[in-house]
Amino acid sequence: MTSINVGMCFDRSFPPGEVTEFARRLEAGGVDQLWVIEDCFFSTGVSLAAAALTATERLTIGLGILPAVARNAAVTAMELATLSALGPGRLVAGIGHGVQDWMEQMGARAASPVTALDEVLVAVRRLLAGETVTSSGRHVTLNEVRLELPPAVVPPVVAGVRGPKSMAVAGRSADGVVTADGAVPAFVQQARSQAGRLQGDGWRVSVFSPLCIADDRNEAYGLMAPLLAEWLGWSPAIAAHPHVDEMRQRLDEGGEGALVSMPREWWLDIGATGTFDDAVEHVARLAEAGVDDIAIHPAPELDIAREQVDQVVRIAAASR
Hints:
By secondary structure, the chain is an alpha/beta fold. The chain has one domain: Luciferase-like domain (TIM Barrel). Helices cover 47% and strands 19% of the residues. The protein has helices spanning 19-28, 45-54, 73-86, 100-105, 113-128, 164-173, 185-195, 217-234, 236-239, 244-254, 256-260, 264-268, 276-288, 302-318; strands spanning 5-10, 33-37, 60-67, 91-96, 133-136, 141-145, 157-160, 176-179, 204-213, 272-274, 293-297. The strands form two sheets. An eight-stranded parallel beta barrel has the order 1-2-3-4-7-8-9-11, surrounded by eight helices. A two-stranded antiparallel sheet has the order 5-6. Helix 3 (73-86) packs across helix 5 (113-128). The longest helix is centred in the last third of the chain and has 18 residues, at 217-234. The protein starts with a strand and ends with a helix.
């Protein structure tokens, strides 16, 4: 199998104090990564990442994702430098647009989210590299700012984006991209094309994939059908699936139940869904498509997610 880092997501709704348990169990099980989620108005990703880094010795922690305009670019760089010092070489930092309605609620909505993200990515990466930065952009203004404690190991900064214009920004101004919402292999290839980056050129691709394993794969498909139906309405990642038109036709004509009977081959691209072997094959497909990191997203129910840690450990072992 092509090399891929296997990790797990820590759902935004989980009590923050649980993050250390998840991190320790994943590390003990030989899993590569834990990705923490920052969404308004739940827990902050920086605090969760700090807790996870200090509770572990080898586990890589992914930040998915910091809204570009929710913090000043200099403060974001300071946060990332601090996290990097807590776990040198164990941080992957995601920065994205943020949900625009949430940005509006907190008085931080940018007139041009794409430009704002570009300026923030450039400034943050330069600061993390130890540069003195002066910038007078539309959204980032800095006057000879330099980090006093730049990271000894500069973390990769990946852009949490979906659309073609934002993907182009990620291609020129970030170390990679992190995608969610059904990042099928075809979307990974599309993202590289839009970013102007080739597989193997060092540009990192990280994806989130939903986890739903059952002895009877149709049971798992039934549990996943409502989420897939939602994604079919808006997700650019699912829109890249080679059979998306047929999926939408099924949904229109037969509702969510019609999605359950889709061919296994279609489901294999969508998530770690079905039997255990199906989940392992899903990871292999993403690895073959050039994905560097897969963060497997558990159920939103904490008790179920705790049980799913063991499934992620098994998937990681089987994917080596």
